[in-house]
Design goal:
mainly beta; 53% strand
Length: 115
């Protein structure tokens, strides 16, 4: 019954910043890990960043130092602050939530980095 609603995608110029968020609702089990993945046309979906309930984070090498993932457990919301964006960051960004019994994906939000 978990539903993920993403927001904040859009168009941004190279070097700019953008923040996306994802709110989870309806989970019968605690959401252990939330994260962001992305998929560009013709590519496989790849990890961007994840965060546990305790705040442990994991980032793809390609975004380290530029992106910051955070989480508000009370709101069951995960955020991704994206700075110094590059055209290579252009993709559909998918929110992900993992519980003991399920792995849920959001619908995705388009992030386009272009001048």
């Amino acid at each position: 019954q978990v539903q993920l609603v993403e927001s904040g995608g859009g168009l941004v110029q190279p070097g700019g910043s953008l923040s996306v968020s994802c709110a989870a609702s309806g989970s019968r089990f605690s959401i252990n890990v939330m994260g962001w993945y992305r998929q560009a046309p013709g590519n496989q979906r790849e990890l961007v960043a994840t965060i546990t309930r305790g705040g442990s984070t994991n980032y793809a090498d390609s975004v380290k130092g530029r992106f910051t993932i955070s989480r508000d457990n009370a709101k069951n919301t995960v955020y991704l602050q994206m700075n110094s964006l590059k055209p290579e960051d252009t993709a559909v960004y998918y929110c992900n939530a993992r519980t003991l019994v399920a792995n849920k994906w959001g619908q995705g939000t388009q992030v386009t980095v272009s001048s």
